[in-house]
Amino acid sequence: MKKSYLAKPGEIKPKWYVVDATDKVVGRLASDIAMILMGKHRPTYTPHVDTGDFVIVTNAEKVVFTGKKWEQKKYTWYTGYPGLRSETAAERREHKPEMILWDAVRRMLPKNRLARKMIRKLKIYAGPDHPHQSQQPIPIELGVKGKRKFRRLITV
Asked: Is the residue at 39 inside a domain?
């Protein structure tokens, strides 16, 4: 009789990956990053345990949207005071370019306490530099259409 494997908290050592977001479509890149943060690229994936890895994204200011989304896409939020605040994607790119990708990834994660732990493992930087060289991140290519991207990541 074969038993299913369930990972225990702290049993899986997370890896660090670095992704260059230059000229990558936001949605495709965000879905690939969300899969790594959840740990679904591993054969030891367990839904109730955080088995994901850390992801460092550089050049977040150079991501692209398809179509006319820079002018048409609106981000809205509630501040606690009367009325909603909103801004377009182009306005957000000017003053907080990291938030475009961060919001896209956050909305692709599950809506629970575990997702809050997962999103903390995402490090996004607008420029090409990051302070995580001591973790020796592995460079990977994500956000590419029709490519088997996770085959190379699976090492148990």
From this structure: yes
93 is a domain residue: no
Partners of 88 in the beta sheet? 74
Give me the residues paired with residue 17 across strands.
55, 138
- CA 19 to CA 67: how far, in whole Å? 24
Residue of 90, 17, 99 whose CA lies nearest to 57 = 17
Res. 155: pLDDT tops 70: no
The set of residues, in sequence order, having a beta carbon less than 8 Å from that of 30 and lying 6+ positions away, is: 101, 104, 105, 108
Q: What was the pLDDT predicted at 151?
A: 60
Q: What is the CATH number of the domain that holds 20?
A: 3.90.1180.10
Question: Count of domains in the chain?
Answer: 1
Summarize pLDDT for 106-140 with one digit per residue, the tens. Answer: 999 999 999 999 999 999 999 999 999 999 999 99
**What residue type is 151 in one-letter code?**
R
